[in-house]
Amino acid sequence: MSDMSHPPSLSTPRDPDFVDAAVAVNSPADVPPSRERREIVGRSPNQLAWLRLKRDRTALVSSVVLAVAALVALAAPLIARLTGIDPTDKFVDRLNDFGMPVGYAGGIGGDHLLGLEPGSGRDIFLQLVHGLRTSLFIAFVSALLASVIGVGIGIVAGYARGWLDSLINWFVDVTLAFPFLIFALAVIPILEDRFYTEREAPPPGFRIALIIATFGLFSWTYTARLVRGQVISLREREFVEAARAAGAGTAHILFRQLLPNIWAPILVTVSLNVPQFIAVEAALAFVNIGVTEPTPDLGRMIYNSIGYVASDPWYTLFPGLTIFLLVLAFNLLGDALRDSLDPRSTR
Amino acid sequence: MLRFILRRLLVAAATLVVISLVTFGLFFAVPSSPAKVMCGKNCTAEDIAQVEARLGIDQPLPRQYTDFVQGVFVGRTYGEGDFARRCPAPCLGYSFRNNQPVTEIIAQRLPVTASIVAGGAVIWLLLGVTLGMVSALRRGTVFDRAAIGVTLAGASMQVYFFGLILLYVLVYATGLLPFPSYTPLTQNPLRWAVGLLLPWMTLGFLNSALYARLSRAQMLETLSEDFVRTARAKGLSPRQVHLRHALRAAITPIVTIAGLDIGTSLGGTFITESIFGLQGLGKATVEAVQFLNLPLVMATVLLAAVFIVVANIVVDVLYAVIDPRVRLN
Amino acid sequence: MRGRTRTLTCSVLAVALVAGGCTRTTDSGGGGEEKKTKTQTGSISYEAADNQGPAAAVNGATRGGTVTVMQVSDFEHLDPARNYVNVQQVTGGLLYRSLNGYKENGSGQLLLVGDLATDPGKDVDGDCKVWEFTLRDGVKYEDGSPVTSRDVAYGIGRSFAPSLNEGPHYIQQWLYPGGVYNATYKGPYDGGKPVPDGITTPDDRTIRFTFPQPHCDMPYAAALPTSAPVPAGKDTRDQYDLRPFSSGPYKVKSYQRDVALELERNPNWDPKTDPLRTAYPDGFRFTFGLESAQIAERLVADAPADQASISWVDVPPAVLPRTTSGGVAERVVKGPTQYTWVLNINTQRVTDLNIRKALNYAVDKDAVLKAVGGQAAGSPATTLMSPTTAGFKTYDVFHAPINGDKAKVAELLAGQRPKLVLAHSNIELRTQQAEALRKNLTDMGFDIVMKPIENSSYYDEIGRKNNPYDLYIGGWGSDWPTGSTIIPPLYDGREIVAEGNNNLSYLNEPAVSAEIDRIRKLPAAEQDAGWTALDEKIMREYVPVVPCYYDAAYELRGSKIGNAFLSDAYGILQANTIYVKQ
Fold first, then answer.
1. Residue C310 to residue C297: CA distance in whole angstroms
2. In this structure, how many other beta carbons lie within 10 angstroms of the beta carbon of residue C362?
3. Per-residue model confidence as pLDDT tens digits over B57-69
4. How far apart are CA C406 and CA B78, in angstroms?
5. Count of A–B CB contacts within 8 Å?
6. What is the dihedral sign for C-alpha C183, C185, C187, C190?
7. How many Å lie between the alpha carbon of B178 and the closest alpha carbon of chain C?
């Protein structure tokens, strides 16, 4: 649902190619999806995928955009040093008596490349660069966490059968039915109160960790179902039988035999999860449980800037455009990745 | 079929029990007491104890939970004597802030959310699925390329951003539409529709982008399947092949996702509601958390869970109806 | 910077943006300097002409229509015993009538006259100890029954009930001085007597208050909602909030908590008995749950459906620049209010006077103010009382530049770097303001820890005597325009209790308390000067706060609203004589 009240697991099961698998798994009558890959002599499927990806121009452009974003985010402290401006510096003298930046286009000028934030007088460029850093970090780590949990649970469920499989399935249902936003609203303040006294501000990292943990806790379900479906379709295959016959342990079969065969769909899920996390992280600002001041954050910046769309559109434009491009690039890359890994779904 | 549904209902009940327990435990751990919030300024410890007794939160946690469950089935009376408040079954709690049973508040708020979701879903299903199907059939044409572009952009857009732009363009700047408001459908269908047009457009357009992408991919996949080739070979007209065979197979996963999406949204579309100033369930829930209006939080969380669980069951049944390959037993 | 990007983006966004971003922003956003500080004299009028109904007709006003009031959140309380917030008081004034009320006509004249009472109260013995009010003839409730003095007494009685404790307690405290106001009498519930000691009702139209000590402010205190009549038979206790029994021109038609409140005419209200209200509109409709930016944008847009609307919510900074052009500027209702915003220093924790002085030199009042809307939100302050207070005289103890004086701070801190916890409400605007302060004070040589507090419990948290915070912003507005409802509640150490304090700096200086007692005993005419002098003495000797800014209101009305002016008594748009243009 694009309302963003829910984390990705509820809103991304529309990765078309894998929906089939997920749905089949979801339904009581498991129809194992048939997903044979056409083999070409001499090249492994992964090499082929890589070749296809390299030829895809959209993939190239979006990877460049993402690489630039990542680079800018990583280099944020360097940019701050070069410009001599700290993201929290306030140029209040450059605001008029309503608190609006003086000059053209929201105070854009040589000193302030993208102008100043109304009210606070902070440099938008530096806020943006540092905010990007926070947001990308949260999104990446959350996506990784969700995948790790999801893969672990999914593999176990897929391989286990019987009561353990049913139990995990039911656990997935419970997680899906529990409202994420309410949980985050309730739990984040509780934990901060538990770990920090009234005179200590939790360090910015703590709130970020809580956000990541909450995302991880609620977003593993899709990956888990996906992986379970894949494992079910693979577990009766000859190579697994062979490994079992050779006396391999369960752990070996799960992680050395099965996992390498399902990494591709997982990779696509991760790439499609990241933009969702960026968007949901911004939504958290709406209910005051996002990243706290003074840590710069793209999501909060968007939330704060939305009201200025008519009075200082520049302030709204830059963070809004950044998140749009970021999400678009991730979506494009995710699509391209999927296409290259599965030639049947060429566009 | 009947056994299947019974089994699903049993599992659903277990799910709801677990969710209610977790919610209960969660809010029991909230450091600030709801009694204190309710009691307000100049409150002595004695006053707080009194309020706690009325709310029934002076009892040990397991007792509170059994009281709650009992209330659901037989109703409940809060407080004693002059202060007594009756909450008839199914009692999900009594909100002292609003001075009414929680079920009454939900009865006021749910129609708002349901109206938003219903209108939005119609748009995104009709527009999104049509767009996706057509561009799959016209694969590679200008139409297809344009559709891909638009849906990609739409899928990368956020509801808070898109909604706000619509609000500015259609309401603040041009006055083409009135600011969204909710009029009950039964009272005045026209005003109901006009008042909700903006949220419908926002949710509808953004989701139709996602649904278009999904249905396009599904359709493409289906068209390459053997049974479609068989149908073509039988000499059926393209129209019959597409509508009777391919569409039917391609739509199944879309139904699944639509069911879950609708179920999830019925629990509250907080951001859409707050962007358009509508008093739906999502806003009620978030406000309830902020005011520590625990009975209301509990009830809305459970209700949202019920919607999702029910949506799951409905989807499974529908799935069997639509797809002949699936048989329930 | 007339570059390509600029032109491009402007045209892309132009449809939506009404071209806000393409013009140059200049220094004065608000259309020039406006130094409109008015000092009220707050006069009490016993003139028959002022005290008689009906209220003077407003030029060009027409009857009919419904006024929509768009609000962010619902009223906490409309029960007269619990009503202590200006928006609630103005709304309450449409539903019930207190003994006295403020008469305003938009010219800045503020008169206290009798509302239910025929005049603002008789000081029977001339020593301010015994006060007598005579009720008007012919005032009726919504069911047509007459309002009696017993109902007024009962209304005050129930305001002692612990469960209805949110209202002002001046009269209550004066009746039972020493200790908590309801320590001995807890209202009429649970077997308590219906009327507190010291109140007698010799007949249906007379009510008499006998105080152990002189209280010359009684006419003002009687204008607060606790003196509104509540018939014992209609008392629904804690549910009265949702359905007060009307003695005013309107009654509750429907009330859906957090969503909407609708008022319709009370057919039994007689304009001839009412000197304050003209009650032109047929009804009022309050809608809750909108965001301040939504409200402001809707009022700026002035669509036909919103033209008969007002809001008591200040225009948020994001929308301010859109209110300065032609048609919209005419519909701005702005001006100074009686509130002063200060940065409270918890003097129980920050005991070093030099640090408190250093803070006064350090705070960048410009940044603090611009974070919430600049000149639309107020003007920089140096005193505790606002310029609207009777007898106000400005002074500045520190003469710090508006952006702070780093050298002076360094000198006062003498090499230490105090670690201070700054608590703030977690709403966006207050967070921005706190962050401005944090940055500013950090640069000035303090270590600042920011602590966000859930907005709904902000004042509860900082009102706990042993709260763990050092600094917190707070605003206070007088209950009537004299220093006696500013200095004593905020700076008298004897009023500090465990919870729910107004004295947020927890200043507890016997010398200040003694001076408060001395001023209270002065003749009424000399008290104003006394409070002003004490204001300066507190800042000079004890430095319990950093005065930040004098609050200003900046509200919008729809184009069909007539006679919309800022009430000096409440600091928001008035409702008594407002009308809908036909």
1. 12
2. 28
3. 777 778 888 888 8
4. 59
5. 177
6. positive
7. 7
Residue with the bigger pLDDT between C537 and A282: it is C537
- Containing C285, the helix (H) or strand (E) segment is strand C283-287
pLDDT at B319: 72
pLDDT of C9 reads: 28
Nearest residue, CB atoms, B19 vs list A174, A283, A286:
A174
Chain B contact for A167 (CB, 8 A cutoff) = no
DSSP class of residue C486?
Answer: T
pLDDT, one tens digit per residue, over C515-524 is 998 998 887 7
- b/e burial code for range B10-40 (CB count within 10 A of at least 16 → b): ebbeebbebbbeebbebbeebebebbbbbbb
User: Which tens digit of pLDDT belongs to each residue from A140-153?
Assistant: 999 999 999 988 88
Token reading at C208: 């008499």
What pLDDT sits at residue C191? Answer: 84
A231-241 pLDDT, tens digit per residue, is 887 877 788 78
The alpha-carbon gap from B24 to the nearest alpha carbon of chain A, in Å, equals 11
Query: Residue type for A118, please?
Result: P
pLDDT value of residue B254: 84
SS3 state of residue C110: strand
Query: What pLDDT does C7 receive?
Result: 27
What confidence category does residue C532 fall into, taking pLDDT thresholds of 50, 70 and 90? very high
Task: Please check whether residue B162 touches C, CB under 8 A.
Answer: no
Question: Dihedral sign, CA of B202, B203, B204, B208?
Answer: positive
Both ends of chain B: CA-CA distance in Å?
6
Cβ contact A108–C27 (<8 Å): no
User: Is C70 a residue whose pLDDT tops 90?
Assistant: yes
Greatest extent of chain B over all pairs of C-alpha atoms, in Å: 85
Residue C395 to chain A, least CA–CA distance (Å): 23
Tell which B residues from 85 to 104 touch C, by Cβ distance under 8 Å: 96-100
- Burial letters for B179-203: b for 16+ Cβ neighbours within 10 Å, e otherwise? bbbbbeeeeeeeebeebbbbbbbbb
**Euclidean distance between CA atoms A156 and A168, whole angstroms:** 9
Lookup: tokens for C181: 């106001």
